[in-house]
Amino acid sequence: MQTNLPAMTTHPAIEQMSHSQTALGSFLWFGGISCYRFETHVLANNLRFASRAVKLAEEWKKYLGASGLNLEVMEGLDELSNTITQLVQRPNYRQAALDDFKQLFMAEEPIVPVRGSEWFEDGKTISMNEAVAMSKWYSRFNWEVARYGLDAPDHIGIETAFCGWLYDRASLSGLPSAGGSAKPNMRDVHTFLQNHFCMWAPQCYSWVHVQAQTPFWRSLLGVLTIVTKNMSYAMASQNGDFGTA
After folding, report:
1. At what angle do helices 198-211 and 215-236 cross, to 10 degrees?
2. pTM above 0.90, yes or no
3. CA 16, 18, 23 angle in degrees (round to 5)?
4. Are β-strands 124-125 and 120-121 bridged in parallel, bridged antiparallel, or unpaired?
């Protein structure tokens, strides 16, 4: 599952988060990349990805606070900001978080399934073809999965990163499409949430959160659980109002 990444000063995954135009988009991007490429992206490149996240944490708090999420989320974001700072500053903290990541997301048989094609709901998989369906979504918008070093289309981390990217592009009309591909709009975001992401991501994050052993993963997965559940509630109420900041 590992990808050999070329040596570079700034990785495309860092550029994407740095250039994100919305707080929700950059948060989902950070969360998704962390859940799939923690070692090769978050902890690599002189920790530039993690360092950038420290600076974005205040924007995440402002956005999520304005969205009306409860005090638990704000406290979770405070803790997340602190744990990201610890990742940057303390090697032993990074190693503990890396060991936790491997157990949660990269084990041969993880305690909680982290791929959509393996996710069970009421004893049935939500979609045996989730990987194929997701590949079609990425292809439709020319989302270059390989460019970011991502190679398991239905992994919870990749779907989360794509959700952030899709929301970002749909929120602001000034953002260009990729290589002449279709330009995402909010209807695309709603369809993706309803037919894919919200069918399993909130519950998956909730269950993985219970298994987390380190402060970084407990705080990140806790906030991801609440944010994705809020997105699911917004879909259920049919207002789809995730904010625009």
Report:
1. 160
2. no
3. 95
4. antiparallel
